[in-house]
């Protein structure tokens, strides 16, 4: 696994074998960043269920101003910190240890996150829990772009009832990215 583009292009990143960590492949990461490239320069990026930190590091390499990595696996936290130090991106990042759904309520970045990437373990329903937890958090706005990585065929029929609108889906062989924004406050159903 490596950084695809930007100031850290081609630098190798450590990853974690086993322990339920499933890194986003370089090919899928490249496709994802081709889709969101206009959102990245100068953005605040939140990487929930960060794993090795590869997605947030890619955002920093491509010009994100700041990235926050949330992960609860201790070995993964160590790898995120090592990858940030190796790429010399640690000055523009924070690493938060804990449960993603619980942590988002307490994050207080200098400004709200522009992009939130959510990549929980597949088939556990954690994407819904994270979306519920972050929907009304002070660290996001109606302009925040949410991207969920999930197993292909994951049920997202609940999105509208949670207050989100689907912008786009990108399907791959075994997984997909779902791009969302919150509904505007006046449209939210309570």
TrEMBL record:
<protein>
    <submittedName>
        <fullName>16S rRNA (Guanine(966)-N(2))-methyltransferase RsmD</fullName>
        <ecNumber>2.1.1.171</ecNumber>
    </submittedName>
</protein>
<dbReference type="InterPro" id="IPR029063">
    <property type="entry name" value="SAM-dependent_MTases_sf"/>
</dbReference>
<dbReference type="Pfam" id="PF03602">
    <property type="entry name" value="Cons_hypoth95"/>
</dbReference>
<dbReference type="GO" id="GO:0003676">
    <property type="term" value="F:nucleic acid binding"/>
</dbReference>
<keyword id="KW-0808">Transferase</keyword>
<keyword id="KW-0489">Methyltransferase</keyword>
<dbReference type="InterPro" id="IPR004398">
    <property type="entry name" value="RNA_MeTrfase_RsmD"/>
</dbReference>
<dbReference type="GO" id="GO:0052913">
    <property type="term" value="F:16S rRNA (guanine(966)-N(2))-methyltransferase activity"/>
</dbReference>
<dbReference type="InterPro" id="IPR002052">
    <property type="entry name" value="DNA_methylase_N6_adenine_CS"/>
</dbReference>
């Amino acid at each position: 696994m490596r950084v695809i583009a930007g100031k850290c292009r081609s630098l190798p990143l450590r990853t974690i074998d086993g322990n339920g960590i499933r890194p986003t492949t370089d090919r899928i990461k490249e496709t994802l960043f081709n889709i969101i490239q206009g959102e990245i320069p100068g953005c605040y990026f939140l990487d929930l269920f960060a794993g090795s930190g590869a997605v947030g590091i890619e955002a920093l390499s491509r010009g994100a101003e700041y990235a926050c990595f949330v992960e609860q696996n201790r070995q993964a936290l160590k790898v995120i910190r090592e990858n940030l130090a190796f790429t010399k991106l640690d000055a523009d990042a924070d690493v938060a240890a804990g449960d993603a759904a619980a942590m988002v309520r307490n994050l207080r970045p200098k400004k709200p996150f522009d992009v939130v990437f959510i990549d929980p373990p597949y088939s556990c329903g954690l994407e819904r829990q994270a979306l519920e937890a972050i929907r009304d958090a002070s660290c996001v706005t109606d302009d925040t772009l949410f991207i969920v990585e999930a197993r292909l065929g994951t049920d997202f029929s609940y999105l509208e009832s949670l207050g989100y609108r689907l912008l786009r889906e990108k399907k791959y062989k075994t997984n997909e990215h779902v791009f969302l924004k919150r509904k505007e406050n006046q449209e939210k159903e309570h």
